Amino acid sequence: VQEEKIFAGKVLRLHVCTMEGAEWLEEVPEDTTVEKLKERCLKHCVPGSLEDPKTVTHHKLIHATSEKVLTDTKTVLEENIQDRDVLLLIKKRAPPPLPKMADVSAEEKRKQEQKAPDKDAILKATANLPSRNVDRTVAHHNMRDFQTELRKILVSLIEVAQKLLALNPDAVELFKKANAMLDEDEEDRVDEIALRQLTEMGFPESRAVKALRLNHMSVTQAMEWLIEHADDPTVDAPLPGQTPAEATAEAGASSAEATAGPSSEASGEEAKDELTEIFKKIRRKREFRPDPRAVIALMEMGFDEKEVVDALRVNNNQQNAACEWLLGDRKPSPEDLDKGIDTNSPLFQAILENPVVQLGLTNPKTLLAFEDMLENPLNSTQWMNDPETGPVMLQISRIFQTLNRT
């Protein structure tokens, strides 16, 4: 009879190793507890060590393949240990020593010194200072006024840029190229680094793109959204305002127009009309896209969808500001958003006289940036960081802030 058949299902032969390099073979029945096995191993490698009852508890057995720490109260069979498995016997790390009372007192003292002052301490320290009434609502309205005024500036600058660019003999060709830039798929304008981080985590690319758009390109918030909506049957539905069929048709029409090229016999009037049509197409592509989550949240409060979209458009997709607008006097109105600034005002004149702005207005990309920021304020950061359009926006902001303080 073969030896394997005699001991099958009863005795296991286990290879045991220590951190010091000792190795040996232990033969144990399947019903042996891990604690008993550990005692046998300690007798083998450290003779006389079992005189101290704590020795067993200070050691542990680890299954080499699964890296699992074996439980003392379980049997070898319950731990699913197989014949010829390798176990590692190691000593547990000693717990860190408790801090001394002097160290505890010093740490508490340090924390108290770094602790922020409470309300009573602040009032006591500022009791002799003259009081000033700061109206937070005024600051909020000032910010809203800035956003409204900036929009008016962009509306007027778009008109100036269109007139300047129309004088360029290559204007039609320039804007066909610029228009082709807008025909790129939305995926190409998503933050590539953020998208790669999400796809490397295992999320589908189309779903990751949607999550990034909903969360303003924040990887952390997009990841939370993807996890939260993993089982949502509508997770892959297109965002409101996105109609792939229409976008494809429009892109095809624009591409065809871009490849056609102007006729060498076209008159100046025909070129002007063609340029006007390109401007209209660019404007249609830059239609305002409300934040879908903000739309749902505000509609749940009982507001009509059209009112909600108007509120978000007026308030640059900011949900809280849109809610205040809906509950307040609703100023400015959506119609006011298409009005430009007074072209004779000192502010607009100062902007037009700035050399950086003047040079930027002759660049078709600047016009595209103005159009984009006008209809999609959340894209402002993208254009502020652009090497061509960023300096123009910086000068406009500086001039506005300077004249607003005087």
UniProtKB/TrEMBL annotation:
InterPro entries from the UniProt entry: STI1_HS-bd, UBA, UBA-like_sf, UBA1_UBAC1, UBA2_UBAC1, UBAC1, Ubiquitin-like_domsf, UBL_UBAC1
Domain of life: Eukaryota
Record has ATP-binding as a keyword: no
Composition-biased stretches (Basic and acidic residues): 106-117
CDD domains: UBA1_KPC2, UBA2_KPC2, Ubl_KPC2
UBA domain location: 183-229, 289-329
Chain intervals for the UniProt region annotation (Disordered): 98-117, 232-272
Chief location: cytoplasm
GO CC entries: cytoplasm; ubiquitin ligase complex
Name the record gives this protein: Ubiquitin-associated domain-containing protein 1
Stored Pfam families: UBA_7, UBL_UBAC1
Record keyword Cytoplasm present: yes
Organism: Glareola pratincola
Compartments, record wording: Cytoplasm
PROSITE patterns tied to this protein: UBA
Keyword terms: Cytoplasm, Repeat, Ubl conjugation pathway
Taxonomic path: Eukaryota, Metazoa, Chordata, Craniata, Vertebrata
GO BP terms, alphabetized: protein ubiquitination
Composition bias type Low complexity, residue spans: 243-266
Listed pathway(s): Protein modification; protein ubiquitination
